[in-house]
Design goal:
Layout lengths: L2 H4 L14 E2 L16 E12 L4 E7 L5 E6 L2 H12 L8 H11 L2 E12 L2 E10 L2 E7 L1 H10 L4 E4 H7 L1 E2 L19
Parallel strand pairs: 5-8
Antiparallel strand pairs: 1-7, 2-3, 2-8, 3-4, 4-9, 5-6, 6-7
Helix pairs in contact: 2-4
Length: 188
């Protein structure tokens, strides 16, 4: 049986601690995407469970769904992503829900998120936020940034070179078995 068919994330309620902090690094605007652009717009293809490490993985795909890039995340982060993807409301607001509510009341919105680079085994991301006439970049874990992108229906970008280096071809089901035989690295 195909690995991806057997993978799933349980929707158990967990509390997630958001890790957004200000960062001085600016990320180039990814609003106009061309072949020469250093940014690639991606989609969340699926959440999965790595059977070797028993750790959740978020799979990001290019628009034609020809390649997929795994990012290993923690179980709390996976639950937050799963709840948002499935449209499952929480009984009480979780951290991402609180942040979204505060941002909306302050007339702020997420313009886009970007997974910028990999240092060691840790992926880095930023969230571009608009508040009135001000646009700011906020440092984030990729998992938190992805949840906020879903909440604000904002595009998800990744460094094109990083995606090309870390992505795997999305293969026919019988060939997907060896997709995850690489070290998962640190939880994001």
């Amino acid at each position: 049986m195909s690995l991806l068919r057997n993978l799933f994330i349980a929707a158990a309620p967990f509390v997630l601690a958001a890790g957004l902090s200000a960062q001085g690094q600016a990320v180039a605007s990814a609003s106009s995407q061309s072949e020469e652009s250093p940014w690639l717009e991606v989609n969340i293809y699926r959440l999965a469970m790595d059977p070797l490490s028993n750790q959740p993985v978020v799979l990001l795909s290019d628009p034609p769904e020809e390649r997929v890039m795994p990012i290993w995340i923690g179980p709390f982060e996976a639950n937050a992503l799963n709840s948002e993807m499935a449209g499952i409301p929480n009984i009480r607001p979780q951290t991402h829900d609180l942040l979204e509510s505060v941002m909306r009341k302050a007339a702020m919105k997420v313009l886009r998120i970007a997974i910028t680079h990999l240092q060691g085994n840790i992926y880095y991301a930023s969230v571009r936020i608009e508040s009135g006439d001000t646009v700011m970049e906020v440092d984030s874990r990729p998992s938190d940034a992805l949840v906020m992108a879903l909440k604000f229906k904002a595009p998800i970008f990744i460094s094109r070179s990083l995606f090309m280096e870390k992505a795997h071809p999305l293969r026919k089901e019988e060939e997907e078995e060896d997709l995850w035989y690489e070290a998962p690295g640190e939880p994001i």
